[in-house]
Please model this.
Amino acid sequence: MNSYNSKFRERCEMFASYIIDNNATVRQAAAVFGISKSTVHKDLISKLKYINPAVYVQVKRILDINKAERHIRGGEATKRKYKKQ
Model:
């Protein structure tokens, strides 16, 4: 599917590069680039697969790990919140 224009290609690869280099979450990438989590996720999951399959596999691996660990991160955030109060 080579119909994606260069703007989408560039943006997808930029998100992917950030996530791979920083082992980041979708939320972190969205904050850095100033866009919604939905946009980052949609670009990485739906579009990157066709734009650059090799990079998609790397990103998918990181996102799967993040998904498996999210309950731990959420618990830690709640713990910090109540410790602060």
Summary: The chain has a mean pLDDT of 87. Residues 6-84 form one domain. DSSP finds four helices and no strands in the chain. The radius of gyration is 15 Å.
